[in-house]
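Hello,

Our lab assistant flagged a job as stuck in the queue for most of the afternoon. It eventually completed. Since we weren't sure the result was trustworthy after the delay, we are filing this so someone can double-check. Below is the sequence as submitted and the structure that was eventually returned. Let us know if re-running is recommended.
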Amino acid sequence: MSGLIALREPGRPSNLSAGGRIPGRFAVRDRTELQRIVMGETRIILTRDLSVMNPNLVVGAQGLAVGKLASYVLKVAFPAVTVGVNWQDCDIVEGMKGMPTNADQPKVIPRPRAIADE
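-- returned structure --
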């Protein structure tokens, strides 16, 4: 795996090389920070690779928070798919509103997966 890895908290990695620095981006460290999210307006950035669910859901992918599925799961709409994302697997971007476009997404070439891949 290439890129810089730093620890935000003990045991909680953050990929600093994905997408660069985005103004207004802050890590969600406590569930009480979820109160800052305005459904249908707030953008979310993934801090964890969820490409097992969809090849486009890599670190740095941006989506729009559209609802809550549970007290700890956000319903996030990405340009290609809508999924549930754990609050610990995303950062909140303040100042950017609305649905992100495909141009806002990281450019990733999906690798072919073998049956033995975990």
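-- support follow-up --
The delay was a queue issue, not a problem with the job. The result is valid. Residues 55 and 110 are 6 Å apart (CA to CA). The chain is about 0% helix and 35% strand.
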